[in-house]
Amino acid sequence: MSLSVCAVHRRSAKKASLVVNHSPSNNPVVPERATTRQWLALSVLLLPVLLVSVDNTVLAFAVPQISSQLQPTGEQLLWVVDIYPLIMATLLVPMGVVADRFGRRRLLFIGSAGFAGASALAALSPHAGYLIMGRALIAVFGAMLMPSTMALIRNIFIDGKQRRLAIAIWAVSFSAGGALGPVLGGVLLNHFYWGSIFLMAVPILVVFLITAPWLLPESRNPQSNKIDLISVGLAIGAMAPMVYGITILATSPQLVRGITTIVGGVGLGLLFVLRQLRTPNPLLDLTLFANRTFRGSVVMNFFIIVALVGFLFFATQDLQLVMGLDSITAALVLVPGLMATMVAGIVVVPIVARVKPATVVFISLLLSAAGYGLVALATTTPVIIMVAFIVLGIGIGAGETVSNDLILTTAPADQSGAASAISETAYEVGAAMGAAVIGGLITASFRHQLIIPQGIRNTHGLDTLGGAVEVAHEVGGWQGAQLLTNAQQAFASSAVITAGVGALLMCLAALYAVVALRDAQA
Fold this sequence. Notes:
The protein contains 18 helices and no strands. Helix content is about 80%, strand content about 0%.
């Protein structure tokens, strides 16, 4: 997750400042001021929020160690990153319905316990396949956390002004977690093995599970819609083959298989769309896409997240495995960019009140393109990566705030919940596609350019930079030194090509924004 979720929920909370009383007298409830107990409940709810936020950014810095020690294939490494947002994207909406029907606090407890257990299993993974399954389980339980925390905040804080303050604290905590993730990950990876980034969830959630039962009330809405399991299946069946097809094209020469898999996913996606348009209780209300501004804003949201996740995928490896920085130093290189993302998301609010949203988003995407372009055109050093990520971050922060604001303001007031769900889903799909497309491109380019010295057997460990570095250390001697040099040069060259493609992609998105958002008003 990122600033997109924060912006969505800030706006959603403002549009839902009253709690309806379903008592027999049907009299409105007089807003009650929150006491110390309610504010303590909020502090407890922030624990899983911070954890999920940190978990989104901390993994990027573990990719080099994971690829070195587990030696996954290029396809497996992409799935380690992709499986989490892919499952989150399909389960966020149905988990919200489950929470409404069976109890938000209950689902939050189940999700927290499961998240802790799955994190421990992931940390102890003996090979990449187990890690992928562990990440999948973390995503399943993580999808239970976000809808439940927000729904509970809305029920705990009845007074509208206090609720908005609580939501703001929730949002700031989420942003702070995203900035803290790289630093925390760098510290852990500098002193412990890669599994420590997953194990850190266990003590945090143990504290939560001990304190939360005393502070959090239960709430539910038994009249909520039933979960359309067929739609959930079609959503998973559509996105998984598309991501899998992209990884096939990136990591193997099986062109026909990759294209066929993608086409199959697109076909299931069309069936998903048809079902949403025909069923009386759709999983996602796709009629909202009839509005051009809404449709364009969702697409912008998607491309902005693709840019962020794709950049982090190769920048973290470049800093550590090519430039030779330790994990904590590499993390500190990217912190200014993460801070720039948060600041830009706030600073753009008064700007967009005076400048057309289409212009703001256009400039934001051009800044993201400039960040990629700097990596493509300049000799990459830690300073260049830092500056590039700051420029990219400014564009991402501003673009995310404006696009999310447009998503909610262009949707009817009684459909703000559906609009919020679509925005969150676009974020998760963008995260999955960012790793699949940008990560897949650099993986394919690396495999094509890597020259393996004579006498070294070509194994799947050489599919990734981390794996090649580990093989080079095992081989040793002049052959190992030559392999290490070749791998670093191949990755650096691939990063330049990938950054150029990323810059072009952002430029095309900027041009689309001018057309799609031309009628948008702040």
